[in-house]
Design a protein that fits this description.
This protein has 307 residues and is α/β, with parallel strands linked by helices. The chain has two domains: 2-127 and 274-304, Quinone Oxidoreductase, Chain A, domain 1 (Alpha-Beta Complex); 130-250, Rossmann fold (3-Layer(aba) Sandwich), CATH 3.40.50. 26% of the residues lie in helices and 30% in strands. It has helices at residues 41-47, 121-125, 128-140, 157-169, 182-188, 199-206, 222-228, 257-268, 285-293, and strands at residues 2-5, 16-19, 29-39, 57-62, 66-74, 86-90, 96-98, 104-108, 112-114, 148-152, 172-177, 191-194, 211-216, 229-237, 249-250, 276-281, 300-304. Helix 9 links the parallel strand 16 and strand 17 (300-304).
Length: 307
Amino acid sequence: MRAITYDQYGDPDNLTLSDVPGPKVGPAEVLIRVRSASVNPVDWKVAAGGLDPLMNITFPAIPGWDVAGVVERVGLDTPEFQPGDEVIAYARKDWVHGGTFAELVTVPVRAVARKPKALDWNQAAGLPLAGLSAYQLLSRLGLAKGETVLVHAAAGGVGSLAVQIAKATGARVIGTASEANHDALRELGAEPVAYGEGLPERVRELAPDGVDVVVDFVGGVLDDTLAVLKEGGRHGSIVEGEVAEKGGLYAWVRPNAADLQALADLADQGLLTVPVTEVFPLEKTAEAFRVSQGGHVRGKIAIEVSS
């Protein structure tokens, strides 16, 4: 099968389009023929060695943790799915080797949900990791109907989904972004504010008594978070571990089929969509990594593997 591989840690120049054997399908796994994958910052960080202290790797490795595709085959004791099912998954495994930037990928059934009909393949591929990051952080912080939440980096891949999930919960959403992205945030249902110096004052103009919950998807904003948080409010980050020292929650997303299915259901209810900024063919994955590394990406970057 065709796959993007790398045989040592490094920059995107290490990525190669290769012909490699297809994966074996173990018990409680499904083999997915990949229609689309998506790029997350963690993909190029893993390929650069950034998670080497945490995760074992076998070279050559195939990057990618997001996938949307069609079940090709199921392993032993896997009654949940059958060949032909359209599915999505956050396909992170316990070690780095067989990722989603390939024509075929195996995924444990515990990570697989049914593809939402309301999303196309590229949008569906952009949902799992980013959507779960937002959903699990907001859930663990207990965001409730009627509360006000501040979303840092609200126009990004995770932030734009957090805005929609919070709105679906019945919360009021204030989101930080550059002014160029303010109209896009309004369309998602957020009240936009410009990030940078003076942010607490701008937030307080909208919420004089402060906000109930703050979620951080960019890092480096802890002082701003604490300046706008109500007494007894909750805050968390998927980026900055220091939040734990200030009473916050540092969260690491995990594969979870039930959570992912909840997101897919929101999409089919018309409450959630996935903004896709750029689409690259599989052979241009290195270019897609460079775009992601440049930052300031609004929404998601998709890798179209097959049609």
